[in-house]
Amino acid sequence: MKKALPYIVFILLLCWHVVLFAQDRFPRPEFESGHVYPTNQMPKPRVPGWEYFDVLILTGALIMTTWLALKKRSRQGLIWMSVFSLAYFGFYREGCICAVGSVQNVSLALFNTGYSIPLSALLFFIIPLLFALAYGRVFCSGVCPLGAIQELTGLKPVKLPKAVELILAFVPFIYLGIAILFASTNSQFLICRYDPFVGIFRLDAPYTMIIFGALLLLAGIFVNRPYCRFLCPYGVLLNIFSRFAGKHLTITPAECTNCRLCEDVCPYDAIIPSDTDQKREEPQKSRKRFIIYFLFVPLFAATGAFLLHNLAPALSGANNTVRLAREIRIEKKTGIESELKDVVAFKESGKTESELYTEEELIIGRFRRGSPWAGAFLGISFGIGMITLTIRSKRSEYKPHQGKCYSCGRCFKYCPIKVKT
Predict the structure, then answer these.
(1) Residue 353 region, left (φ>0) first, then alpha (ψ -120 to 50), else beta?
(2) pLDDT at residue number 391
(3) pLDDT tens-digit profile of 250-268?
(4) Residue 374, burial from CB neighbour count under 10 angstroms (0-12, 13-18, 19+)
(5) Dist CA 123 CA 395 (whole Å)
(6) Is residue 191 very low, low, confident or very high in pLDDT (cuts 50, 70, 90)?
(7) 295/29: higher pLDDT
(8) Cis geometry, peptide bond prior to residue 380 (ω within 30 degrees of 0)
(9) What is the DSSP annotation of 5-66?
(10) Residues 53/97, Cβ–Cβ less than 8 Å
């Protein structure tokens, strides 16, 4: 039963995630008047100037977390930083603005000349990435409120089978690609709309999102940080940047003695073991496999681009204008007058149907141009992931995987070598 627990938990989570998206289509959606962007995700505007105070708090929290993780090596200190971040960035600031959601602001600004990204949003996007490039994923360890609420509930970690983890680890790449596509086409902020914890922070969200957040926290008791590991789109960027970190958290404060006490303690499977005693694959065979996978990358990119290009009309349904135009068509086809608020508002606006349909075609055109790039990104990501499986470097000690490690410090207490005071 214990071995089956991770499968049961994630089947429930995946099924419920389907419900979150299905609720928008069955029955047909009722549009609210006005442009809701994103739905139920924006707290009251911050007093001018105070958003930069949030940036200072973010920077200070990152500096403190870096010191606690790399220098002080204090797991307890990192826990208290998580409590502070959860209280301030989560409940007090109501989860907005956050680095995770800022991906959408940056995407919207890059592809829409009519939108100017607030400097505070840009800084929230850039600063954690700079810290990741310098010190690893310290943002995840004690600053991100989404990670903090999960870290505090991870009480009885159970490891997932490697095959399951490898499959689920690709989901954030899909999420990131689709979220950027939706934001850049000015359709919706997908990450904010389906943030599982913002409803808990604000005590105000659709019941489905509150249940989804609660399910994630429940699953997180056993499968630590399920959102961070298998959904978070910003985590994709942090993973990439932290692989090149100049300094990074280490399991031991001194030279590793290969005592193997830390071998199975990381719930995120982020500890790379020593392989001095393992039989190594023949170099010729490894090189051959590397070349084959490398040659497959363009094929994966082209396949992804082709698939998402063909899905562009369906994906464009996320845009309110496209959905309205389709609703008008349904009304004309069936002869049944719609009572949806957006349809009524459109009829009263004096705008002609031809103008609406022209606008719809322009938006679908934007999706057709952007979807292949999102698909190519997914294909390349998948190909690079396969290539990394072929790379084997000789390791004489136990060390954290710089991309997967959350710098949480759980491994500290298992190392018999203590910090000199």
Answers:
(1) alpha
(2) 73
(3) 999 988 888 888 888 898 9
(4) buried
(5) 37
(6) very high
(7) 295
(8) no
(9) HHHHHHHHHHHHHHHHHHTTTSSPPPPPSS--SSTT---SPPPTTHHHHHHHHHHHHHHHHH
(10) no
* Alpha carbon distance, N-terminus to C-terminus of the chain: 45
Q: Residue 114, Cβ neighbours under 10 Å: how many?
A: 7
User: Do the beta carbons of residue 263 and residue 157 sit within 8 Å?
Assistant: no
Task: Taking residues 303-313, report their average pLDDT.
Answer: 96
3-class DSSP state for residue 87? helix
**Residue position matching structure tokens 């023949």:** 282
Q: Which amino acid is at 34?
A: G
Sign of the four-CA dihedral 134, 140, 141, 143: positive
**DSSP per residue, 366-381:** HHHHHHHHHHHHHHHH
Range from 11-25, 185-199, 309-323 carrying the lowest mean pLDDT: 11-25
Can you tell me the distance from the alpha carbon of 105 to that of 115, in angstroms, rounded to the nearest whole number?
9
Per the listing, tokens 């049961």 go with 8
Measured torsion, CA atoms of residues 310, 315, 321, 326, in degrees rounded to the nearest 10: 70
Structure tokens at 394: 């000789």
> Which uninterrupted H or E stretch holds 184?
helix 171-184
**Whole-angstrom distance, CA of residue 325 vs CA of residue 338:** 12
pTM: 0.85
Neighbours of 244 (CB within 10 A): 13
pLDDT at residue number 129:
97
Show the tokens assigned to 37.
């962007």
Tell me: pLDDT of 39 over 60. no
Q: How many residues would you count in the chain?
A: 421
Instruction: Give phi and psi for 161, each to the nearest 5.
Output: -60, 145
